[in-house]
Specification:
Layout lengths: L3 H36 L6 H8 L1 H19 L4 H36 L14 H23 L4 H18 L1 H16 L7 E3 L5 E7 L3 E6 L4 E5 H6 L3 E2 L6 E11 L4 H15 L11 E7 L3 E11 L4 H16 L4
Antiparallel strand pairs: 1-2, 1-5, 2-3, 3-4, 6-8, 7-8
Amino acid sequence: MLDSQSLYYAGHIVLLLAASVLVGRIAGPVFTRLLEALSGRTASTLDDRVIKATKGPIESFFFLGVFYFLIHAFPELSSAAQFLEHYIYAIIVVISTYLLSEASGAAIRWYYEEGHKTGRLGMDLSLLPLVRKVTKLAIYAIGFTVALSATGFDVTGLLAVTSVAGIILGLASQETLGNLFAGIALQMDRPYRYGDYLSLPGGEIAIVRKIGMRSTRLEDTSYNTIIISNSEFAKMRITNLSLPNDVSVVGVTGELPLGADLAKLESRLSSALSRAKPAGLLQEKGYSLVIDSAKPSSVAFTFSFWVKGYQHAVTIRKIINREILAFAKGKK
């Protein structure tokens, strides 16, 4: 059972703890409101976002600071203060870790939504989810390691066990890790950007929607989702129709009777496009009609045009196919 002296010390510590909570509840919000008032005078919203995301840990610092000061203010509690000091320091490290994680997350979200518009850093937005995850993981790994060390815990054994467990998990999940590293490589190398039009090995045209940590999501021209593992996607021979300048040559194939006047067809298609003036069509680059093959009764051809922004190719194809059909039927 606890003796009277232990109860006396415990009672004092509980009272100091309650007083610290009360002061922290009052002083913390006052301090954060002051920071919000100062940040409201700046043109950027970055500081506003960071302060809003770190309100909780900032207010917690006041509680710990007051408790640390009060427990050292009473000489009779010196032994308790010495015992609790390491744990208070560990809690401060944990709170600091959480604060840094939230502040970095707020800064990255700000850049994703607003900051990239300034064009100063020039970072690809598709990299930001990866940057956020890696940053958060690194901050928590360092923070909790320092916090455990502060309490006297020997982290050497923990690191050794973690390393062995990591090796075992790595061997057991080689395919998952392959997709993970392939995703990181795609994010870092940036051969594709979100919204780019790709020509896949099977001839399908698809749009890049998301490059995740395990798989890549594409969307075909029928608005269906295509999911490909990152390791498989990284090995494919793919043509990016949106790079380097979002200008592409698009061909429309067709087949007509052997005696068809292809020169007249080319003139008709050119006139139809000039009248329609579809968005994205680069008329100044001209058109071309090339014979692909000739059969005893028919001739196959390809009519090519230039387009700025591959998303406009579908509309232009419709115009061309409609005119080819009308020509084949003998309509004017």
